[in-house]
Amino acid sequence: ALPPQYNALKYAFRNPKHQAHLELKSCRALHFVMAKPWERVAKHEEEEFAELFALWHAARMESISGAFLRPAWPSRVVHTGLPGLWYVPEFVGGEQAAELVEHLYGDELRGRWQRMRRRSVLCLGGAPLPEGA
Known about the structure:
This protein is an alpha+beta fold. It has helices at residues 16-19, 43-48, 50-62, 73-76, 94-104; strands at residues 8-9, 30-31, 77-79, 82-86, 113-115, 120-122.
């Protein structure tokens, strides 16, 4: 599994088991599963995650993070054949990138990589098709 800072769920911040191992300021990717701060949500969701929603709105309003700015996406498309894949420079910094690569190729995930015909796939659930699709 990826380190929590790259794969945190909003619910982890309400779970005492996870709170001790995760700090909001260290998160690089926070998944707003179910209710999202940019959508109309049920009142109980707004109240339960009011702090996270407020942080998201503040970051968006203050333009703190490029992830919230909706940059010129067409200019960031990696390849015209992959219209939903964008390159966002500096999304993960040098130190975080090194940590992520070390984790991906480290002992914990060794044996979970499968060599396909034209690429390697890290299997974290399910099984890739033999033809590599």
